[in-house]
Each structure stands twice: as C-alpha cells, then as structure tokens.
C-alpha cells in the first residue's frame, strides 16, 4: 500500500466556462484521493488544468473581441482561482496552449501517423468529413443519435445544438479497434468504473465503431497538424494528450514519464466517458503507449431538482458556496451526500442537514466535549492511558480501541474503490461509537468517583479523535488540521501521516491548547 506512486487527473476544464459546482466536485473528489495517497506514503502526481483550443473557445474569444490567446490567459485564471478556493492540492495546473503541450500533441500525432491498426492498415488517413458536429460538446454525432426539437433544430443527446460540417479531415481508423478495445475491457475488468459505465461503453463499442475525424480545417485555433498546417488537431486528441504532457512526453525515457506513466486513474464526469474509454485507449495503443489503469466516471449534480444552467438562474459558483457554508462543509457535503458515481441533487436543505447533523452534532460535538473535559478536569494536561481495571471497562475500551485501530484499513479499502462516500461512512461510524462511549463512561461522574478511570477514558477518547482527525484530513483538510492542533500534534508530515497513527500516539502529560469549535452550526439568517 505505501511507497508506490499514484498519478491521478481531473478532466481539464473548458477554459471559457465559468467555474461552477460541477467543476468543483470533480476537483474536490480528486483532491481527496490525492491527499489520501500522499498521507498513505505514496508519491503522488495530481494534475488539473484548462482545455483551451477548439471552435468553442475561438468563438468565445471572437465574441469578447480579443485574440484567443489573450482570452485564454484571462479566463484560465478563473479555474486556477477555483482550485485555490476549494483547497485543491494539485501538483500541476496544465494549460493546453503551453509550448510543452503543443510539442506533446504533435508528437503523439506523429507516432499515430506512423502506426498500423490492429488490422494492419494505416491508423491515420486523409479524407473528407461530412456530418454533424456540436460545438458545445466539441463532438461529432451520428444522425441516429440526434433528435429534432420543436424549433426544427437538431440536438445531440447532451442537448447541444449540432451543425452540418463538410471539410477535408484526417481520420483515425477507429473502426479497426473494436475487437482490440473489447478485449482490453474483458481482460482488465477494472479499467472502467463504476460497472454501469463499463457496461454502457462495452455495448457502445459492440454496436460498431466508425472512423473518427481528428482534424479540422474551417478554423485555426488549435494545434497545427505536423506537415499539413492547414489542419488543426481535433480538440479532444489535443486535450486528452495533456495527461502525457504533464509527465514529459515525448521524453518517454525521462524520470517523470518513467515514474508516473501510465496514470493510475483518470476521474471524469459521466458525460465524457466515451472520449476517455474508447478514443483515448485507442490513441495511446496506436502511439505505442501504455494505457491508464482506470477511468472512473462520477455522476452529475442537479440543483434543487433541476439541471444547472445560467438561463434557469440556478447556476452555482463555487465562491458563493464557500462564502455561504465554508470550504470544508462544502467538500464534506459533496463527498458524503451522494455515492461517488451516482447522480445527486444539491439543495440548501440537504447541505444544512449535513452541516448541523454530521459535522456539528456528531463530530464537532465529540471533539468539543472531550477537549473541554480535558481542559476543565485535568487543567488541559493529557491524562495517562493506563489499562482499565474491571472486565467491563476493559471490554468497552477494547471495542473502541480495536475499531479505531482498524479504521485506516477500512477507509483505504473504500478509497481504493473510489467509494468516497463509504470512506466517510467508516469514519463517522467511529464518531458515533465514540459518542456512545462518552455517554456510557460518563466522565463527568468519574471525575467525582474515580479519577484514575477518568484519565483512562479521556486518553482513549483523545486517541480516538486523533485517529479520526488524521483520517479526515483528505476530506476536510482545514478542520482536521485545526483539530490536530488542539491535540498538540506537531504540524509536520511525520506526525500527521497515516503511519503516525501507530507510530506517534499522544504523550501523557502533553499540554493541550484551549479548545475552539471546529464545525460551527449553520444558522439561517433571519428573514428581513
Ligand atoms: N474539456 C473537457 C474535458 C477534457 S479532458 C481531457 C470538458 N470540460 S468541462 O469543463 O465541460 O467539464 C469538466 C468536468 O466537469 C467534466 O468531468 C464534467 O462531467 C464535470 N461537470 C460539469 N458539469 C457537471 C455537473 N453539473 N455535475 C457534476 N459534474 C459536472 O468536458
């Protein structure tokens, strides 16, 4: 488990969108995985960034009356700010207009251009594209996938308007990759998660694949095709390649590439599964590169029961969420409230329910009452944790201590399945158990009758809270750090990583600072 490497990525965000709840969600989920793996002793590379080429960005720049590059320089900052706001610990923030990325995209193009398909034909050939294209999705659609709206316009399954495109284009011979892909899915059952998405992709590929147009000639905002600069590369081929750029491709002998490639996981939203599970593995295999270990698709958020959109007025900016609830509460809510992989609904009521229930009443209250008792009964000095005297006491302590000792592995098992909601459930099971232990042991009575036992109980609880705080760091980093400060745990990796759980127990006699609430209750503003 410890000592390995872990390379994970978010999708790179379309630079011209305004950051919203959905973007923040993908970032927070990946951040939690990255933080978890770092604390677990792995060497982590966590990548995010912005997707800056293509017709959509060119159009937005034109509408804004600026050059595309100047437009991207400005709006890419909105996503960088979002990562800071959500406390995202990405190691790199890539932009697809960077020279290193243009070089990597051209290199993968050249590698594909030299390669043969599984059926021995050229993977790349020049032809003419005529068909439907949705600029919003930057995707081609078959006629059979479209529906005609009441306005007479054709729309893609995503709801995006499509337009008819006819232009010279290079094609990738995707049709020859069908059996190869099906074989890969069969031999690597964990390649696509959750299982429902794997089934969906498998049946899509079984339905037959058509060759994919991978260059455009009707606009210029993209990576020039090497050797034929009238063409720019299809934005998805360019965009997907960001995962390679970040590890130094085309320098496949370089240290970063050798350490980190293939990626351990690409986390994506369910809408972009086809690009990551069909096109990307075929591009990589054609270029002679190893495939990522896994692609995991999460679900989509609606807001108060409706699809989020600017026109419906229910568009939620991450800044608004953080101002209203605080960053840790938002992170906790998003990770806990819906099974990772499923769709969910964001509502004010649900957020407040989690804040005042799970955070304030359960975890916050446990910490507050234990730390306050240590202050008032022991002068803030951590009491000694000797073994209990009676069989009942030993049983009660043993049950809690045993569960707490197993928590690291219980949480890790859920994290390895990307079951972030269940990882939190495991932690909160111990919160509930510890709250029951406080009620049963009633330290306020022991204070008068049995000061030795009082010390034992408070020590068991302080150690329990230390475990909870260390394991909660990936999910709610600020609150967990504050709690560890209140337990006087030194603020360094040695004392806060998962190995510290066993290696650095709290020292009896340590002076603890005055406790302060870590999870405030949410109080509705009075109606004016
Ligand atoms: N640029 C492409 C990705 C290229 S990756 C090589 C793209 N960008 S995006 O900005 O449109 O979407 C980024 C991510 O945000 C996607 O994973 C998408 O699923 C996610 N979300 C966008 N809206 C969302 C919700 N309402 N809910 C949850 N996530 C959603 O696609």
Structural overview:
It is elongated and about 90 Å long. Helices cover 49% and strands 14% of the residues. It has 2 domains: 294 residues, HUPs (Rossmann fold, 3-Layer(aba) Sandwich); 156 residues, Isoleucyl-tRNA Synthetase, Domain 1 (Orthogonal Bundle), CATH 1.10.730. It contains 21 helices and 18 strands. The protein starts with a strand and ends in a 25-residue tail after the last helix. It has 528 residues and is an alpha/beta fold. The chain binds 5'-O-[(L-methionyl)-sulphamoyl]adenosine.
User: What is the average of the pLDDT values?
Assistant: 96
Q: Identify the overall geometry.
A: elongated
CATH superfamily of the largest domain: HUPs
- The CATH topology of the largest domain: Rossmann fold
Tally of structural domains: 2
Number of helices: 21
Largest sheet features = 7 strands, parallel
In CATH, what is the class of the largest domain?
A: Alpha Beta
